[in-house]
Specification:
Layout (H helix, E strand, L loop, with lengths): L6 E7 L6 H9 L6 E8 L5 H11 L3 E6 L4 H11 L4 E4 L5 E2 L3 H12 L3 E9 L15 E4 H10 L12 E4 H6 L12 H13 L1 E13 L6 H4 L4 H18 L3 H21 L4 H14 L13 H11 L21
Parallel strand pairs: 1-2, 1-4, 2-3, 6-9
Antiparallel strand pairs: 4-8, 5-9, 6-8, 7-9
Length: 333
């Protein structure tokens, strides 16, 4: 007998007291009512747990799990294991949802028979978010290869690489033992999604912005991951390459994967404190990933195209090319 709970909403929480009320209110007010809300307090040291317990007293659909700090991947995995819904979605504690998000994604899965549905998001930055224009409101389905190409190249409001802003069928995750890599604390979403896409072979796309991603949280895990950044990227690329080779799809997505590495290089360089450090990071990165010089750039601005051309010309002999690094800091993917 199918569960009466249609969607389990899993929210890891770590020191998020400033954001929890807005996040939880947006979930509790969803038009899809048959949901459960699993809040996982991951060792918060602020008032997060107290806020969660107060909300749970008001809404019996909320379950609060209190853990020692173990990281977002373990928290999400515990949430999956506790979930009773037909579908699962992940929400970060500093983000919030459009009131119809769960209903729209659930209907997309139900009508198309897809195990995974995706919507777009708003980048909630200080200057505001960009509203996308859609030629059609009709659902469409992306193949595994299309999904992987988007995963490695899309940025901004259509960014594919978040585990959130998606709905996953619980039985599908369990059947393929799809869980987050608990050894990773950086871009674990990308590895999870790569595995999920390969197993599912498609994703239903809902052309609507329904998830609000808070870019401005200074204590976010993404910003903490800037420490040991190069090592984090090395681990990420190794895991992704292994998944792509195992599924025998690397040749079909190679250029997109090289774009993903190019993005990583830009992030590393923008974190470099001096020109000398930039030079070292560039030489080290090219030595480890020489194929990046063969990339055909996708969704890039003109300065980045020029920068790639200068790299091919042995850029570190031309000190003036450092000006091309003074572009808008790329969003981490």
């Amino acid at each position: 007998m199918a569960s009466k709970i249609l969607v389990s909403v899993i929210v890891p929480v770590y020191n998020a007291e400033k954001y929890l009320e807005k996040c939880l209110t947006s979930i509790c007010h969803q038009t899809l009512r048959d949901i459960e809300i699993i809040m996982i307090n991951d060792g918060s040291q602020d008032q997060s747990l107290s806020i969660l317990q107060n909300f749970a007293d008001l809404d019996k659909r909320i379950t609060v799990l209190d853990l020692e700090n173990s990281g977002v991947s373990k928290a999400r995995n515990i949430g999956i294991d506790h979930a009773n819904g037909q579908f699962i979605t992940f929400v970060d504690a500093d983000d919030w949802l459009e009131v119809t998000m769960l209903e729209e994604l659930y209907q997309a899965c139900r009508l198309t028979g897809s195990n995974i549905a995706k919507c777009d998001l708003y980048w909630q930055e200080a200057e505001g978010s960009r509203q996308l224009q859609y030629p059609s409101n009709t659902y469409c389905t992306f193949s595994a290869i299309e999904c992987l190409n988007k995963l490695f190249t899309e940025i901004g409001e259509s960014h594919f690489g978040f585990a959130s802003c998606k709905l996953y069928e619980k039985s599908f995750l369990d059947m393929h033992r799809l869980r987050f890599d608990e050894a990773m604390s950086f871009a674990e979403d990308t590895v999870f999604l790569t595995r999920a896409v390969i197993k599912n072979q498609s994703i239903c796309y809902v052309p609507r912005q329904l998830y609000y991603y808070n870019v401005n949280n200074e204590s976010s895990l993404t910003k903490k991951a800037m420490v040991n950044l190069r090592n984090n990227y090395d681990v990420l690329y190794k895991k992704l390459l292994m998944e792509l080779l195992r599924a025998e799809v690397y040749a079909e997505v190679k250029n997109s994967f090289l774009n993903y590495q190019f993005e990583g290089l830009l992030v590393i360089l923008h974190q470099s404190a001096t020109k000398q450090q930039m030079k070292y990071e560039m030489q080290s990165f090219l030595k480890a990933y020489p194929d990046i010089l063969k990339v055909k750039l996708i969704n890039r601005n003109m300065k980045q195209f020029v920068f790639l051309k200068l790299m091919k010309m042995n850029w570190f002999s031309l000190s003036s090319t450092l000006i091309y690094l003074n572009v808008k800091k790329p969003k981490v993917i």
